[in-house]
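Re-run with default settings, no changes from the original entry. Doing this only to confirm the output is reproducible before filing.
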Amino acid sequence: MKKTINKSIPVWQFEHFSKFSSVLHYISGREGGVSDGNFDSLNLSASVSDDNTNVEENRQRLANELQIHPNDFLFPWQTHSDNIKIILNSDEKRDNLTDTDGIVTNLTGICISVLTADCVPLIFYDPSKQVIGAVHSGWRGTVKGIAGKMVQTFISEFNSKPADILVGIGPSIGPDVYEVGKDVIEEVQKTFGKESELILNEKKNNKAYLNLWKANRILLEHKRIPPENIEKAYICTYTDQEYFFSARRLGKDCGRFGAGIMLKRQ
């Protein structure tokens, strides 16, 4: 990933998406907004207790950085599900986005985005079929296989070939610090098996560390996404607290950064 600033707001971008002129994408951080406290400063979420006028200004500033309109952003109401919304009609694009953790579309001018503060954001692009996707995947979404389900949606709904799909795995809490309990350990092992080595340094107190980055890579590769098509940020939100929000560090009522992608208007 690379950090860029065109106007005033730093954003992070994946190298392999940046090669295509037909698409724009972003990973936002904490810097450049107007919020304070646990929302300092570029909180994009209206579902936390930040002032909505701050959120609107923050989204406006990010839109200015990306040179799009704030109304181009499309954020779902995330619930740690594996539900994916397919948007085929511009008239329906802002409807029925409750209980949604993934969005896919082939429409231009819609910046489909997800919000996170430790969970894994993933963005998808098939330059052959001109289809894009965005996914929010915490441990629950990961064990439900939402990343693989997004790939399957590209294949079944848009006739994509796995070899054509590019994926970016964005900043999230890293395996060195993401401590989880017995319930999470059991769910991960049900989905991936003990041999996956996703559970690290298991302790006598039924605690261990979970590697969400590797887990999502496994889900993608199981759907035959070539390893070279998967770009990984390897940025830990908990460790890099200066640049990204972390609910594990700040508490659940904290800011959220965004990850999104848009097919440019012709």
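The helical segments are 52-66, 139-143, 146-158, 182-192, 212-222, 247-250. The longest strand covers residues 120-126.
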